[in-house]
Amino acid sequence: MTPCSEAEITAALSGLPGWVREGDEIVKRFERPSFADAVAFVVRVGFLAEAADHHPDLDLRWRTVRVALTTHDAGGLTARDFALAEAVEGIA
After folding, report:
1. Tens of pLDDT along 26-81?
2. Closest by alpha carbon to 59, among 68, 50, 51?
């Protein structure tokens, strides 16, 4: 899979509210109502990631979950990152 161009990244991010680019990653922080809900959200993201065979970096801090996506083997952002971000939005 080839990395997205700058124009493709900008266009894809415009359809993903709250997601921002940080270097070669797209990142969003999700605030959940409780710690238990944050843990459950991480589990739901994990099932999405397994189904997509594309695994984000997840950071859980009390009620906040940071999701970071990049395609390491492509050396940057690809369509897979934006597809998984959309899927994560669907369960948020």
Report:
1. 999 999 999 999 999 999 999 999 999 999 999 999 999 999 999 999 999 999 99
2. 68
Q: How far apart are CA 46 and CA 51, in angstroms?
A: 9
Q: State how far the alpha carbon of 51 is from the alpha carbons of 21, 22, 29, in Å.
A: 24, 25, 22
Which pTM was predicted? 0.96
Phi and psi torsions of 63, nearest 5°: -105, 5
Q: How many CB atoms lie within 10 A of CB 81?
A: 26
Q: Fill in the DSSP letter of residue 23.
A: T
Task: Give the SS3 label for residue 76.
Answer: strand
Q: Would you say how long the chain is, in residues? A: 92
